[in-house]
Amino acid sequence: MNTAVRMVNITKTFPGTVASDRVNLEVKKGEIHGLLGENGAGKTVLMNVLYGLYKPDQGQIFINDKEIRMDSSATAIKNGIGMVHQHFMLVPSLTVAENIVLGREPRKNMLLLDMEKIVKDIKETSREYGLEIDPKELVKNLPVGLQQRVEILKALYRGAQILILDEPTSVLTPQEVDSLFKAMKALREQGKSVIFITHKLKEVCAVCDRITVLKKGKVVGTVDANNTNPLELAAMMVGREISSTCKKENYQPGKCVLKVEKLQALNDRKLSALNDITFEVHESEILGIAGVEGNGQTELVEVLTGLRQTTSGKIILDGRSITNSSPHDRISMGISNVPEDRQKRGLILDFSVLENLILGYEDKPPFETGWFRLNLRKAASFSDELIQEYSIKTPSKETPARHLSGGTQQRVVLAREFSRKPKLIIASQPTRGLDIGATEYVHRKLAEMRDQGVAVLLISADLDEILALSDLIAILYEGKIVAIRECGKTNELELGLLMTGGNNE
Question: Kind and range of the H or E element at 459?
């Protein structure tokens, strides 16, 4: 009776895809078990089967050595399984306590909510697992890290002995990650089992007891965390070695390309989003903007690309003011943009690969031939070259962009933006939602552009990404640049403190 979960020959298919192919997985009681794999490897599908959200086509599930027909999430919860999804399932207008007990409200005399008992139970549970939180606080007022605590407490309140965490660190600061890991270890010490899905190899090595790697719906292997390392795990995931850094050995920036002076702007609610932002980006330099999401990153990108008006300040590109220039003019002047949402801002999903590759300069030679006519032969030749150069996996250049994988969609965006011979690249969350292989590719292409003399502004909530690529790091907090550090002269702890308002200059 040392096994909490045993999944035997689990197979799950969707039209045209085998998501889980005779997968065997065993999770012990009182262990943190890592689940690794590229996007599409079948990790979340497998866990959705365990949680009763998908019914397997074949296979068996055993909980505590008893076979269970997992036909719904209610059955999973009844058998002690809880799942914290990547996108939280909370009601923002309710309190912490109300969210935790929603659907299982203890009542006095079968009528009134017993709020005194609810608050007492939540405080005891939160203290027991190091997940302290105010039960009376509204969820909408909580930062992301505390909202995640609410999700975990909700699962524990429902009696979870087996907790599935799907990409739980993707939006957390280093301090919040440390807090989560302490809670996970406390759960393990209480004899509970945690299944930890993540892309971040350092984290899985730091907190897990054993790690199972999936690839194309199949199990590659299960290893003890003490007997492996991130490079070995990456090789298991993608079938080859992965480079962990793209920084130059000798940091030698060129002339100033982008100069931002005392920039101010409002958000959509007409509140201050950017407050006296000042920085420079030079040729052959990657300036990383680090910060917890929601501190002005989106507004900064929109101001720089001409999608949002400034209230004051200057934007100077290569010695020329572009403060009031249109987005189209900024593209013509040498700004390329890799947006944070490739599907909403980077692509027109119903357009073909060819049409997306020339998007933004279809009205310029050699594509425009007068009278608003498109030179289809030139456009086809150009797209064929980029498809080959950027290894864009598409059945045809006529394939609509919506039919491509996320990683392939990002390659289309990179190919278009980088082929313009830009002076400045603004890359916002460029690897969001990508697996480790696709992430490595994006990092390599950004580094190549930097090495060709292009100035790169990298905005990312992923500190590993910032540290792997940046020459300089600017920390954005509540719409202000609170510090600028050389990459080799800082660390995750200092950056994490700066990102949350501590140790400011």
Answer: strand 455-460
Question: Considering Cα of 415, then 417, then 423, then 428, what sign does the dihedral take?
Answer: negative
Q: Taking the CB of residue 239, how many other CB atoms lie within 10 A of it?
A: 11
Residue 324, judged by CB atoms within 10 A of its CB (0-12, 13-18, 19+), counts as: exposed
Q: State how far the alpha carbon of 473 is from the alpha carbons of 103, 317, 492, in Å.
A: 46, 20, 11
Three-class DSSP labels, 161-203: CEEEEECCCCCCCHHHHHHHHHHHHHHHHCCCEEEEECCCHHH
**Phi–psi pair at 39, nearest 5 degrees:** -60, 135
Pull the structure tokens for residue 305: 């690309």
Q: Collapsing DSSP states into helix, strand and coil, what is residue 253? A: coil
CA distance 301 to 339: 8
CB atoms within 10 A of CB 293: 14
106 and 233 housed in the same domain = yes
Identify the domain boundary among 238, 272, 304.
238
CATH number of the domain encompassing residue 97: 3.40.50.300
DSSP 374: B
In this structure, how many other beta carbons lie within 10 angstroms of the beta carbon of residue 158? 16
- φ and ψ at residue 117, rounded to 5 degrees: -70, -40
Number of structural domains the chain divides into: 2
- 141/95 Cα distance (integer angstroms): 9
pTM, whole model, 2 decimals? 0.69
Q: What are phi and psi of 361, to 5 degrees?
A: -140, 35
Question: What pLDDT shows up at residue 104?
Answer: 67
Average pLDDT along the chain, 505 residues, taken 10 residues at a time: 91 86 96 87 91 94 95 93 85 90 67 77 85 89 84 89 88 78 91 89 90 92 92 80 62 93 92 94 96 88 95 96 94 93 90 92 75 80 92 90 85 92 94 78 92 95 87 94 91 83 61
Residues 202 and 265 in one domain: no
Q: How many CB atoms lie within 10 A of CB 26?
A: 16
Q: How many C-beta atoms surround the C-beta of residue 352 within 10 A?
A: 17
- Given this model, what pLDDT does residue 277 score? 96
Identify the burial level of 115 via C-beta atoms within 10 angstroms of its C-beta, where 0-12 means exposed, 13-18 middle and 19 or more buried. Answer: middle
- Strand-pairing partners, residue 138, are 95
**Exposure of 396 by Cβ count < 10 A (0-12 exposed, 13-18 middle, 19+ buried)?**
exposed
Question: CA–CA separation, 61 vs 392, rounded Å?
Answer: 39
Query: Are 157 and 119 found together in one domain?
Result: yes
Alpha-carbon span 389 to 461, nearest angstrom: 29
Residue whose tokens read 């002047």: 333
User: Is beta strand 424-428 parallel, antiparallel or unpaired with respect to 285-290?
Assistant: unpaired
Torsion of CA 298, 299, 302, 307, to 10 degrees: 130
Note the residue count of the chain.
Answer: 505
Q: Is residue 49 part of a domain?
A: yes
pLDDT given at position 232: 87
Contact indicator for 187, 181 with CB cutoff of 8 Å: no
Q: At which of 203, 238, 273 does a domain end?
A: 238
Range of the domain at 44: 3-238
